[in-house]
Automatic annotation (TrEMBL):
Residues 30-142 form the SHSP domain. Belongs to the small heat shock protein (HSP20) family. InterPro entries: A-crystallin/Hsp20_dom (IPR002068), HSP20-like_chaperone (IPR008978), Small_HSP (IPR031107). This is HSP20 family molecular chaperone IbpA. It comes from Mycolicibacterium fluoranthenivorans. Pfam families: HSP20.
Length: 143
């Protein structure tokens, strides 16, 4: 069988079907921990800062989370592995995430700060209030 690279597709904005099924006890154990799920984020601009909150429960932020900024794109990568043992039986759950967001115009990439508390990653980026003036482009008619 040939190994064929499959291009990544963009994840829909609707929740994954397994999130709807998570309320059913018989199916909740089938829901993967991280595999195939984007990092859930909330973001807002207030008080001159772009604030992003990401749900990352069960990770060690020092070892398992990487935040980078390149060309106005903030990228969060997280990896998680968990091992549970009981009565001579062990279970493993593992997976990785990547989530990228475009920073707003005027974002000060040098002033970024990140904190992690109780499974929530908070990223704060100062935003300069002054907007760059737009440029008017003249349209030339074809003759």
């Amino acid at each position: 069988m040939n190994n064929v690279a499959v291009p990544q597709r963009h994840l829909p904005t609707w929740p994954d079907i397994s999130e709807f099924l998570s309320g059913f006890p018989a199916w909740s154990s089938l829901r993967p921990t991280f595999i195939g799920h984007p990092i859930k984020v909330e973001d807002d601009i207030k008080d001159g800062k772009y604030e992003l909150r990401a749900e990352l429960p069960g990770v060690d932020p020092d070892k398992d989370v990487d935040i980078t900024i390149r060309n106005g794109i903030l990228t969060i990568k997280a990896e998680r592995s968990e091992k549970k043992e009981s009565n001579g039986r062990s279970e493993f759950a593992y997976g990785s995430f990547t989530r990228s967001v475009t920073l707003p115009a005027g974002a000060d990439e040098e002033g970024i700060k990140a904190t992690y508390d109780k499974g929530i990653l908070n990223v704060s980026v100062p935003v300069n209030e002054a907007e760059a003036p737009g440029k008017h482009v003249t349209i030339e008619s074809a003759k």
